[in-house]
Structures are given as structure tokens and as C-alpha cells.
Amino acid sequence: MKPVKRLGIGLLYYNKGLQQFERSFHEAMEALRLSGLIDEVSLIVQDGAPVDFARETVVDNALARDLDAVVWIDTDLIIPRDALIRLVSMSNAGMPVAAGIYRRAMFNPADRFLLTIRTIDPARALNDLRNGGAKNVHWATLEELREHAEGGVTRVALSAGGFSIVRREVYQVVRERCGPPWYCTYDFQVGDWSFEDTFFQRRLRKLDIPVYVDPELHAVHWSHYGPVPVTPDDPVMAELLS
Known about the structure:
Largest sheet: 7 strands, mixed
Number of domains: 1
Helix content: 25-40%
Shape: globular
Order of helices and strands: EHEHEEHEEHEEEHEEHEEEH
Oligomer: single chain
Number of strands: 14
Radius of gyration: 17 Å
């Protein structure tokens, strides 16, 4: 795959509007500009649309503009300054789908697991987030992701799509081999409700398209429960509270 030079960034706004996100995103955009990695960046914004329709619209727009890849940064995340540089660099290293990591934002600390699954038993391959399946799978720990890293990245079965980069070729192959849509909150092939990025990544698994995460690329997930960092000493938290 050629280096990413024309980049789309999907931004979905509906129940979110954090000034902390805007500040961190601005700083990451400036760092990306100064890096010289990218020739062109297009912000593709959806405001108020259902999440699966919004992601579909962003991808359609990106492919119509002949962009090389789409970065997804959910607008309730606080990202480090070098986040965009690191995502693009992972893509340029030949990873068709690459991501950082963040925790589920919940009131109960026990439910704040990493939204990443390293392996899925083929006999239970659909039981990732289906119908309460969050309690029935092994969610990766940070220690596990670090232990299995090779060259700074770990191949996983599922990652959260809200902090990732996807090559245009991936969307083209998924459309050609699986048909539309890319994203849907109802998986009509198996008859269950799933998150829209789970729907997409199930198709990646079906096609054996690899997904990689950088165990050291962390975002703070900021919901109505407040900030949820990957680690208590996350430097992004120090900046937010300074």
C-alpha cells in the first residue's frame, strides 16, 4: 500500500461537544501538519445523524474524494498530541486497520474494560458484543496487549472503531465481498443487535483482514461519568487537570 497522503477524518457529533476534545484534537491536527506526513486533510463531519448512517456517509464521502484512508476520532475522546501521527504511521507501515485503545466509559469501575478483544473462540465468533455479550467474552487487559506486542503493535480480533485508521482499500474489499453496508447497528446476517463498529469488524474477521492496536496509544474516554483513562497516571489526564 502506498503512503497515506490524502487523509479523511470522520467526526461524529450528536450528544457530544466537549471543549476538551476540541482542544486535544486541535493540538493533534497541528502536530500532524508540522510532521509533513500528509499533503491533504479533509474533515468530514456528521452532526445529529444515527451513528451507523453517519459512518456510512463519511466513508461514501471519503471514497468519492479518492482519499487514501479514514481516521475515526470519537468526539468524546481526549487524545495525545501525537495520536494522528502515530495512526498514520501505523497505516504507512502496512496495517490495513490500526487503532489506539480506550476504556468503556461506565459508572462502575469494574465495567471500564478496554474496548479491545485480542482473541475470539471460533465457536463463539459472534459473541463479541451481541445482546449483552460484553459479559461473555474475554476483554483484553493492557498487560495482555503489551505481552503479545510485536514491533510495538498487537494483532487483535476486535478494537473500538472510534480511535482508528482504515485504508480505503479495506472499505472497497468489504463492499465487494460482503456487500453494503459497512456499518449497521443491526446485524441482519445473524439477526442480532450490535454496535456499528462491531458489525464492521465482524466482516473484517470474515475476510481475514487484520486489525492492529498500539498498546501504548491511549485515549481518555470522557462521558457523562467523567474522564476514564486507560491508566491512572495517563499524561493526557495531567494535561487536562493542569
